[in-house]
């Protein structure tokens, strides 16, 4: 096991302090629907009905431990938020190290930029909803485990890695709603590492889809067993029972359900059209770069990522139709802008070459970060 660098510890502490300030209203106690639900029915019943029956085995264990020690609801809510922030800051460090390993550049700017990109990728505009619920901890753990799985798959030359599969399964049993993040970030890093080697990219992505499918199937089996044991039928994944019918319904309402609610409104977690505007701006940077560096395929890779995100979003709407318009289900959408910045940093010289394009790109990154923080503050203020 590699030693943790002192620099990473310092960065972690700074990230934790900044994140704690941003999400202070959540840390200082807030009430969500599940908070009142726990207060009404107790930890044990909530753990069985809302965690065990929904395939969130580790959240079930956390709930049962809270019942065992008779943890006050305030301590439970605050504890889950603080732990989630800690885990998410660790995820930022890991993502930052992945970026810097793929593009090792020296200089303060080339240390700061990967940190900023990683921070806004993990703590994106959809993330604020993750912290709203007591499941915040398991959501954060699932994101971290998926990220570690991608890290292993990127660093190994093998197509099939058992440890990566185990990480994906554990992540899915923490919280299956973030499974799209795994596939999306996997494709992004495959495009970065195996530049233009689409045969390798396709093979490794195929293995990733197999891992995701296997973990999701195992999770469904656990749900069926839990429903049988408890005698209570879960409701959140009812779209799975009628995939074709639900898929047709989502396809017919694609414009209103996906384009308007998720991409334009960003599930009401980001100002209207901001997501589309930022994506378009980065896409234009990629197009201009392509025109200057004709051998590069930045625009093609960006379009591939956009199409893949559309597919993931469509799939998540199908399997989670009852909560299709919630930010926690569409976490991959929130990561999109950070991923595009990651690609620009690793696969182009936009951040290296002194030019107007670098100034514009860095300025755009800072504007995006400030926009996310500002929106988070406006939402959390009323928590």
TrEMBL record:
<feature type="transmembrane region" description="Helical">
    <location>
        <begin position="162"/>
        <end position="192"/>
    </location>
</feature>
<feature type="transmembrane region" description="Helical">
    <location>
        <begin position="274"/>
        <end position="291"/>
    </location>
</feature>
<feature type="transmembrane region" description="Helical">
    <location>
        <begin position="329"/>
        <end position="346"/>
    </location>
</feature>
<keyword id="KW-0812">Transmembrane</keyword>
<feature type="transmembrane region" description="Helical">
    <location>
        <begin position="132"/>
        <end position="150"/>
    </location>
</feature>
<feature type="transmembrane region" description="Helical">
    <location>
        <begin position="204"/>
        <end position="221"/>
    </location>
</feature>
<feature type="transmembrane region" description="Helical">
    <location>
        <begin position="107"/>
        <end position="126"/>
    </location>
</feature>
<keyword id="KW-0472">Membrane</keyword>
<feature type="transmembrane region" description="Helical">
    <location>
        <begin position="76"/>
        <end position="95"/>
    </location>
</feature>
<keyword id="KW-1133">Transmembrane helix</keyword>
<feature type="transmembrane region" description="Helical">
    <location>
        <begin position="303"/>
        <end position="323"/>
    </location>
</feature>
<feature type="transmembrane region" description="Helical">
    <location>
        <begin position="358"/>
        <end position="374"/>
    </location>
</feature>
<protein>
    <submittedName>
        <fullName>Glucosyltransferase domain-containing protein</fullName>
    </submittedName>
</protein>
<feature type="transmembrane region" description="Helical">
    <location>
        <begin position="9"/>
        <end position="27"/>
    </location>
</feature>
